[in-house]
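lol forgot to send this yesterday, sorry. struct tokens for the thing we talked abt
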């Protein structure tokens, strides 16, 4: 019986080559889309799942009262007090939440590594990577100790045993105490973990939020109780003390300054559901939950579209097999057998579709990995189980309905020969066609709005000009002489032909500044970003002063007690006449907080991405506080002979600044563009999927129009005999599809508008949703429909009348 079914399937495959090909191709595209989404989903949801401590480890974040800013860092005394006073906390760990890039030296060998972190001695109690060499416990107990990954140990030591060997990092010597094997994916995947993260000067500074802070709670502890107790630690040690010092009641102090709120992020869900915070939450970054949902949702939509297309084609082509079914029923075939036969045929089609889908995925995977910055592969037991589930689900969804539909053909009606003119199943196929139009409308509208938002971000005035300005990492290890080295370097590179200007500030365009401090003025508390900068920085970046003057070396007070503030900070403080206003800063010494005079107002500019509002900012010369928080040198270069200028910079840099590091640079505009890189990905994703959806929709529309019009050939012949013109016939044959298109568009508009408005809410700076994308989508669908349907209609109007009427 199976053999017979297979022969019948092959016969019909040969008879309907085009539609069989469209069926398999449509399904394979839909399945490929789901496979891509599954690979991405599996990878993102696998982060930290290997970790046996994932349910007991929490990252601690702070919401700064009065500003609402969330910080992923904490202070040392806060953490130590929590550990000493809260019995539910088993362990705490301070660590860097970012990777350092630095030179690692061993004897005469040196390597530059980009994944270096510094932590407490119990890092491996929170991230228990397998220790394959050295100590199993207290690896980082000594401040000059280090553990390294297995891969790095092989690169640095070859076949030598690294345990006990001394390596150099940032001009300090460290002893290798352990070698571990990285387990991926993880929120922390460092190649080196150095001990000694805590600085002595921070031990009693409650306001120095410099450290990533994680706690491990005892099993079965009530996390809500731990959170409440940690809030109490802050209240007793900060709020009450600060209120007393300022001569206020706690209630008055909280009303004026706000109160720090603690947030927990469980390690188990940190990657995808971690709180959005200023700075990084983990070195490997947060997962893009929105992109994940978009990819999953759109891939499911495409699969549904493919299934609808398949069902449409299957039920339409079933008319040609009506007599076959009737004959099989006459010779004794049961309804169940006919259903099983057509499900069998669907299973073969789905198997072919999955094979083609896997081929599409395998060929496209390198580009997909580049798109996501991943290294996904087609393997893993979980993936194969999911593939089997997809196989079964597609067979059920694609096969059951057509099989039941075909098995219900009435034997007498079929064998009398008039079944081809039956309207059986037409309303179902038409409904599915309308559904296809709705999905196509959703994708076209979505692609247009996402494209408009990305174009808006790419073309919006940033408030600064990064044209021909490059950012060069200033990798100079000696902190004490770093400032002087910068000034010397600046003077020397200004002598290079092609270099127009040079300056620096403690931050990065697109990634904010390196520090922030709270201040209170006239009862208003704010947490501005600190911009420690060199003279001439604002002029070089063409950042405007809208009131007052810029900081200048002509005024001695500009390195003592003068600063600038931006428009946002002036508004938040309610300053109507801000120039010459004295403001108490968040920086203090033994005499109390330092006071500064506002000498100028800086026009707001975008230092972070368009997802965020422009933050309040203070601008101060780097000599004022003698800080060396800057990490880069900014150089404006001429567009003429750029390659020659860069070559000269490279030669000078590698010889005079730091020979251990290769010369590296990035154009500022390109660096800022990374802030909307994810949205560019979503734009590209919509564009690709839009093409896929339109192609599948064309398949379905062409096939359905073909079957529909072939059923009306005798009607067309009669109309032509009665004198109908070709134009009138084209109009008659096309109008129902235009109506279907309009209904489908109306259905797709509502979810498109709601979901895209939700997407736009992620941006502080965004476009408005106008009628233009909807109009373009409607016109596009109508034109596409008319082209396909009219082409097929024109073809059938040229039929031979005698062929269809000679027996009438």
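and heres what i got for the seq, position by position
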């Amino acid at each position: 019986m199976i053999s017979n079914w297979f022969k019948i399937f092959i016969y019909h495959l040969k008879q309907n080559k085009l539609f069989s090909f469209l069926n398999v191709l449509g399904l394979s595209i839909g399945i490929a889309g789901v496979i891509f989404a599954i690979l991405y989903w599996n990878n993102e949801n696998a982060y930290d799942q290997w970790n046996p401590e994932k349910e007991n480890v929490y990252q601690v974040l702070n919401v700064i009262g009065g500003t609402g800013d969330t910080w992923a860092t904490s202070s040392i005394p806060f953490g130590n007090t929590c550990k000493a006073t809260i019995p539910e906390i088993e362990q705490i760990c301070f660590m860097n939440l970012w990777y350092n890039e630095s030179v690692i030296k061993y004897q005469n060998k040196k390597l530059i590594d980009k994944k270096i972190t510094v932590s407490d001695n119990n890092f491996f109690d929170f991230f228990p990577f397998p220790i394959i060499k050295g100590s199993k416990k207290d690896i980082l107990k000594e401040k000059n100790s280090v553990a390294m990954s297995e891969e790095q140990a092989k690169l640095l030591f070859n076949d030598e045993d690294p345990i006990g060997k001394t390596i150099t990092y940032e001009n300090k010597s460290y002893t290798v105490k352990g070698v571990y094997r990285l387990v991926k994916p993880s929120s922390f995947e460092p190649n080196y973990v150095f001990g000694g993260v805590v600085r002595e000067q921070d031990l009693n500074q409650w306001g120095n939020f410099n450290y990533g802070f994680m706690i491990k709670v005892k099993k079965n502890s009530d996390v809500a109780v731990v959170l409440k107790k940690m809030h109490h630690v802050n209240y007793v040690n900060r709020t009450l003390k600060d209120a007393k010092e300022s001569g206020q009641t706690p209630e008055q102090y909280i009303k004026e300054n706000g109160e720090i709120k603690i947030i927990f992020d469980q390690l188990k869900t940190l990657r995808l559901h971690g709180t959005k915070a200023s700075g990084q939450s983990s070195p490997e970054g947060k997962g893009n939950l929105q992109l994940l949902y978009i990819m999953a949702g759109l891939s499911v939509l495409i699969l549904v579209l493919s299934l609808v297309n398949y069902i449409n084609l299957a039920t339409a082509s079933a008319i040609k097999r009506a007599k076959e079914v009737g004959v099989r029923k006459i010779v004794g075939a049961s309804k169940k057998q006919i259903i099983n036969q057509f499900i069998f045929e669907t299973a073969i089609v789905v198997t072919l579709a999955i094979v083609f889908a896997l081929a599409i995925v395998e060929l496209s995977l390198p580009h997909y990995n580049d798109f996501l910055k991943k290294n996904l592969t087609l393997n893993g037991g979980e993936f194969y189980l999911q593939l089997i589930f997809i196989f079964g689900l597609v067979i059920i969804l694609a096969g059951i309905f057509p099989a039941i539909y075909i098995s219900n053909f009435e034997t007498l009606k079929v064998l009398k020969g008039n079944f081809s003119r039956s309207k059986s199943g037409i309303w179902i196929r038409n409904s599915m066609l309308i559904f296809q139009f709705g999905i196509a409308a959703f994708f076209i509208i979505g692609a247009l709005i996402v494209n408009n938002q990305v174009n808006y971000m790419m073309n919006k005035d940033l408030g600064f000009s990064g044209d021909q300005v490059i950012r060069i990492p200033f990798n100079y290890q000696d902190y004490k002489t770093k400032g002087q080295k910068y000034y010397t370097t600046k003077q020397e590179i200004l002598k290079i032909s092609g270099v127009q200007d040079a300056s620096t500030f403690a931050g990065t365009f697109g990634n904010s500044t390196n520090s922030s401090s709270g201040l209170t003025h006239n009862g208003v508390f704010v947490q501005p970003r600190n911009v420690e900068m060199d003279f001439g920085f604002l002029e070089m970046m063409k950042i405007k002063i809208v009131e007052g003057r810029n900081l200048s070396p002509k005024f001695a007070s500009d390195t003592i007690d003068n600063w600038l503030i931006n428009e946002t900070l002036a508004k938040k403080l309610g300053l109507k006449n801000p120039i010459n206003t004295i403001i108490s800063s968040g920086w203090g010494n033994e005499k109390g907080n330092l006071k500064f005079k506002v000498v100028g107002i800086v026009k707001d500019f975008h230092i972070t991405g368009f997802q965020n509002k422009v933050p309040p900012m203070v601008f101060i010369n780097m000599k004022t506080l003698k800080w060396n928080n800057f990490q880069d040198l900014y150089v404006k270069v001429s567009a003429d002979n750029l390659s020659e200028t860069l070559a000269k910079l490279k030669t000078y840099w590698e010889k005079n600044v730091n020979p251990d590091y290769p010369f590296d640079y990035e154009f500022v505009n390109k660096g800022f563009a990374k802030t909307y890189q994810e949205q560019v990905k979503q734009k590209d994703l919509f564009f690709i999927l839009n093409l896929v959806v339109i192609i599948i929709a064309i398949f379905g529309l062409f096939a359905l129009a073909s079957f529909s019009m072939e059923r009306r050939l005798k009607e067309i012949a009669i109309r032509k005999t009665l004198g109908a013109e070709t134009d009138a016939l084209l109009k008659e044959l096309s109008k129902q599809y235009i109506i279907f298109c309009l209904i489908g568009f109306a259905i797709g508009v509502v979810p498109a508008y709601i979901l895209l408005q939700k997407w736009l809410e992620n941006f502080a700076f965004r476009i408005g949703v106008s009628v233009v994308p909807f109009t373009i989508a409607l016109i596009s669908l109508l034109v596409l429909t008319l082209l396909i349907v009219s082409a097929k209609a024109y073809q059938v109007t040229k039929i031979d009348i005698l062929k269809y009427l000679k027996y009438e």
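Residues 570 and 577 are 9 Å apart (CA to CA). anyway ping me if u want another try
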